[in-house]
Design goal:
375 residues, 2 domains, nine-stranded antiparallel β-sheet, 33% strand
Length: 375
C-alpha cells in the first residue's frame, strides 16, 4: 500500500488540489449567486409585470392588477391611475444599486426597514424555461420581494433590502436627484384614477348648476330631444328664450373628462368644510337616470396672498375643494377645470348681434343656426 502511495503520490496530490479548487469555485459561485440575488431589485422587463402588492406594517396595503385591456385596478375593484402605475414600473426598471449599507449604519437601517418599510411583491408572467426560442409553462410567478425604507441623509438614495438577505443596499436611479420612497405607496387612495366624472354629450340627460351666492344665476339644462335642449332658471323655473346653443354644447362637452388634483379623504379639516355652505352644487343625470352630484367649497387663500390691487385675498383663486362619489370622496380641484362646469346662467345669453333659437338642431355634431327674433 505504501509503495502504491509512493508511486502515485503526484496523482493523488493533483486530485486533492483539483478537489480543493473545485470546492473553492463552487463556494465562490454560491456566494456570488447569493450576492447577486441580494442586489436584484430592478425589473427590466416591466411589460411582463401582472401584479404589484405593496404593504406596510400599519395594515395599509394595496394590490395593483393589470387586466386584459392593460387597465390597472385597485384590489380588483376600482380603476387605478395607469399614469401612476407607469411611474412605479419605470422606477422598477431604472433603479440600480449604488452601494451596500455601511457596517456603521447597518443595524439602524435594518431596524427602520422592519418597522416603517414598505413590502413590495412583483409578479410577472414568466416561462419555467425556454428551449429553442419557445417558452414552456408560461404563467404568473412571484419574481421579487423586497422592502423599501426611507431616504439616505443626502436624499440621493433609498434604503432597500431583498427579503431574506442580510445586507441592505442604497438604491437610486442614475441621473435622478432624489429618493424613491414616495413612489412605493401602500394606500389604495394614492393609486386612484383622478376622474370625477366622464360623460359625453350623448350620455347626458340634464345638468343642474346651483350658485349658492348668486341664486339668480342657477340653472338647469334639459335634453328635450335627440339633439335639442332647453334651459330653465332655477330661481323661478322659467325658460330662457333664446340662448346660445353653441355655448350649451361647449358647456356639456366639459363633462367629458373631469379630474381632481389630489384626494383628501384623510384631511383633518374635511368635516368642518363639508358641513359649511357649498360654493356650487352640480347635478348631472345621465341617460340611465343615474345622478352624479358634485359639491364645491371655497378654500382659504395662503397667508399673505394679495390680489393685483395689493389687497389680501380671502379665498384661493386657483383651487377649491370638491365632494363627490355619493359624498364618499373629498378632493382638491382646480378652477381651471371647474370654471367650465360652473358657468352662470347669463353665460348662455346670445350675443347682441346674433339671433339664436331656443332649440337649434344639431347635424353631425354641427349646430344649425336659425334666425329668430331676440328679446
Amino acid at each position: 500500500m505504501s509503495n502504491f502511495i509512493k508511486k502515485n503520490r503526484i496523482s493523488i496530490t493533483t486530485v486533492l488540489i483539483l478537489a480543493i479548487i473545485t470546492v473553492v469555485i463552487l463556494l465562490s459561485r454560491r456566494n456570488s449567486t447569493m450576492e447577486e440575488k441580494a442586489r436584484n431589485f430592478a425589473v427590466r422587463d416591466t411589460a411582463s409585470v401582472t401584479r404589484l402588492f405593496l404593504a406596510k406594517k400599519d395594515s395599509s396595503q394595496v394590490l395593483l392588477t393589470k387586466n386584459n385591456n392593460s387597465q390597472w385596478t385597485i384590489n380588483n375593484e376600482e380603476k387605478a391611475s395607469n399614469a401612476a402605475v407607469e411611474i412605479l414600473l419605470e422606477t422598477l426598471k431604472k433603479m440600480d444599486v449604488k452601494r451596500p449599507v455601511a457596517k456603521s449604519e447597518h443595524n439602524t437601517v435594518v431596524k427602520h426597514l422592519s418597522s416603517i418599510g414598505v413590502k413590495v411583491e412583483v409578479y410577472q408572467k414568466k416561462p419555467l424555461f425556454t428551449l429553442l426560442g419557445v417558452d414552456f409553462f408560461n404563467k404568473e410567478r412571484l419574481t421579487r420581494t423586497f422592502y423599501v425604507g426611507d431616504a439616505t441623509q443626502n436624499n440621493r438614495g433609498t434604503y432597500m433590502v431583498i427579503e431574506g438577505a442580510e445586507i441592505p443596499y442604497v438604491v437610486y436611479i442614475p441621473g435622478f436627484r432624489g429618493y424613491l420612497t414616495p413612489r412605493f405607496k401602500a394606500k389604495p387612495d394614492d393609486w386612484r384614477d383622478h376622474t370625477i366624472i366622464s360623460k359625453g354629450i350623448n350620455q347626458i340627460k340634464s345638468v343642474e348648476v346651483i350658485h349658492k351666492e348668486n341664486p339668480e344665476e342657477s340653472f338647469r339644462i334639459n335634453k328635450t330631444g335627440k339633439n335639442t335642449f332647453n334651459i330653465r332658471r332655477l330661481q323661478d323655473n322659467s325658460l330662457m328664450i333664446p340662448f346660445d346653443t353653441l355655448k350649451v354644447l361647449d358647456f356639456l362637452a366639459s363633462f367629458n373628462t373631469v379630474k381632481f388634483e389630489d384626494l383628501l379623504n384623510d384631511f383633518e379639516k374635511k368635516d368642518s368644510i363639508i358641513n359649511s355652505t357649498p360654493f356650487h352644487i352640480i347635478r348631472l343625470k345621465d341617460a340611465q337616470d343615474k345622478t352624479n352630484v358634485i359639491k364645491t367649497y371655497q378654500r382659504r387663500a395662503p397667508e399673505g396672498l394679495n390680489n393685483v390691487y395689493g389687497e389680501e385675498m380671502k379665498y384661493d383663486p386657483d383651487r377649491m375643494y370638491a365632494l363627490f362619489n355619493n359624498e364618499e370622496d373629498f378632493a382638491l380641484v382646480q378652477f381651471y377645470i371647474f370654471d367650465n362646469l360652473t358657468r352662470k346662467l347669463s353665460y348662455f345669453l346670445p350675443p347682441m348681434n346674433m339671433s339664436t333659437s331656443q332649440n337649434q338642431p344639431v347635424n353631425n355634431g354641427k349646430v344649425s343656426i336659425k334666425n329668430t327674433k331676440t328679446r
